[in-house]
Write a structure and sequence with these properties.
The complex is a heterodimer of chains A (111) and B (117).
Chain A: E1 9-12, E2 18-23, E3 36-40, E4 47-50, E5 64-69, E6 72-77, E7 86-94, E8 99-102, E9 106-110
Parallel strand pairs in A: 1-9
Antiparallel strand pairs in A: 2-6, 3-4, 3-7, 5-6, 7-8, 7-9
Chain B: E1 2-6, E2 9-11, E3 17-24, E4 33-38, E5 44-50, E6 56-58, E7 66-71, E8 76-81, E9 90-97, E10 104-107, E11 111-115
Parallel strand pairs in B: 2-11
Antiparallel strand pairs in B: 1-3, 3-8, 4-5, 4-9, 5-6, 7-8, 9-10, 9-11
Classes of the chains: A mainly beta (111), B mainly beta (117).
């Protein structure tokens, strides 16, 4: 049971917009700790997409955006492309566990 | 900027293994370094961090069994894994925390640990 909850799967047609939620609690997201998002293609290491809630590292397309409110965060992908099919994970710090935690992961399917 | 892991393999339950993560392009001791694992078909699990000052944290699942360390002269991160269990079977990744920003921005390619008799 992950401390951060994500929907197992999300799907959308090419060109459309999808969002992935990441629900936490007052000991992690709600405590003000930053949320980071990763994309993981099959058989590869994760890639940092969003850091500290809303920021994109250099090279990440602006089709990817992050937001945070209260005890939850979201990743939005606009203009969905076939290459976006992957697993996506959120991450934050949890003060009760005194360590970092990942979300349960969401598989994005492009219809 | 690159990380290259090594040291994975097949090990019997109760055994020990040491993973290595060689860094290039940056100084391991100046940054926060993590170990993250992924069991077959499962999600990511954070397991340990070593801060630039040398302090460490562990996930409850490995506390007391795993030890994170670094060798500054070799610019290499390590994970000593003792009392291995079947549930420790996973791909192990090392990663650098994005300096002053958070998140892991540099990842190794992963090394596979299989705990089985």
């Amino acid at each position: 049971q992950s401390v951060l909850t994500q929907p197992p799967s999300v799907s959308g047609a090419p060109g459309l917009r999808v969002t992935i939620s990441c629900t936490g609690s007052r000991s992690n997201i709600g405590a003000g700790y930053g949320v980071h998002w990763y994309q993981q293609l099959p058989g590869t290491a994760p890639k940092l997409l969003i850091y500290d809630n809303t920021n994109r590292p250099s090279g990440v397309p602006d089709r990817f955006s992050g937001s945070k409110s209260g005890t939850s965060a979201s990743l939005a992908i606009t203009g969905l492309q076939a290459e976006d099919e992957a697993d996506y994970y959120c991450q934050s710090y949890d003060s009760s566990l005194s360590g970092y935690v990942f979300g349960s992961g969401s598989k994005v399917t492009v219809l | 900027v690159q990380l290259v892991e090594s040291g994975g393999g097949l090990i019997q339950p109760g055994g020990s293994l040491r993973l290595s993560c060689a860094a290039s392009g940056f100084i391991v001791s100046s940054d926060y370094m993590n170990w993250v694992r992924q069991a077959p078909g499962k999600g990511l699990e954070w397991i340990s961090i070593i801060y630039s000052g040398g302090s460490t944290k562990y996930a409850d699942s490995v506390k007391g069994r795993f030890t994170i360390s670094r060798d500054n002269s070799k610019n290499t991160l390590y994970l000593q894994m003792n009392s291995l269990r079947a549930e420790d079977t996973a791909v192990y990744y090392c990663g650098r925390e994005y300096p002053d920003r958070g998140g892991v921005d540099v990842w190794g390619q992963g090394t596979t640990v299989t705990v089985s008799s």
